[in-house]
Amino acid sequence: MILGDSGPEFSQATPNRRGVFIVGSGRSGTSALACTLQSLGLRVPQPEVPPDDSNPKGFGESQWVVDFHDRMLRRANVRVADARPQAWFDTGRVSALEKPREEAFQWLASQFDEGVSEVVLKDPRMAWFIGLWRSATLRLNIESSYVIMLRTPSEVVGSKQKYYSAHATDVSAVSRAASWINQMLHTERATREERRAFVHYSSLIDDWTIPIYRLGQRFGLEAVNSASARDLRNIHDLIDPDLHRVHTTWEDVRVPKSLRLLIDETWHHLGNLAKDEEESTDQHTALDQIRHEYVQLYEEAEAIAQSSMLAARKKRRSHRTSGTPEAPPETSDSPSAALRTTGILGRLRG
């Protein structure tokens, strides 16, 4: 059982209401997919997060969902891109609280007003709270589906380095690589029993018609299956090969060999899930084993770095005692948070 996913109350049956949840790591093409589905007629709840230089054609994200998840992450003391396996238990405990569950339920119910039957929700933070949203869809009898976007891990890290941190270091790159495997392995596990699909970012950019058609067929999306010629022209204007702007490899991103091997194995098995029509228990077993090995690797790294962590805590206490301002922690791994930070701190954080 996934922590924070128990005890839903069921509403009366409401046919033909569908929710598509786009999950997985940020900078993996999640925005391109969300905006594509939106252009075909699925609803992205308003208002939306505004476009910026990192996503000039838009994020396809509901501002309410982003703000809701941000509050939940702060309460759990978890970052958007958190490499700690423990972070899943922390967000799971917050997800199990009655107040946020009811808040998500009421908000989601309000999105299916008259004439709206298909909604798409996308946010890099969403993977931490899959159980909470699952509960809401069960209570509302909404048919939920999950799309996990796949992009070469080294490109994900490189893209985050370019757009999320103007003063990136090798340590930051390692942390981002570790957060990728942590997020992807646990997202895969959390959606394993659900209706889901894996889509490669490169496939979406190269010829979006193939993966979008498959999603429409697999999930029974009326807006996709009945798209007009005008809708299709809008997508051709939206999906631009130039969106694929970062092509970093492991030659460009310095990651310890032990971590890189686990990332490469994870990428291989997730790719198999994307290719196969039916998932096998062998694939699931392999991913479970990798997740176990990553937990062991992270615990070993924590034990080795304990002296550094203790020194950092002592330094923070010293700052508080002396009244010296501390640099704010990186609580987010998205440009929207950086845009909300103003003044000298905003410039320093990039």
TrEMBL record:
Region listing for Disordered, in residue ranges: 309-350
Fetch the Pfam families from UniProt: Sulfotransfer_3 (PF13469)
Q: Which GO terms describe its molecular function?
A: transferase activity
The molecule here is called Sulfotransferase family protein
Q: Which UniProt keywords apply?
A: Transferase
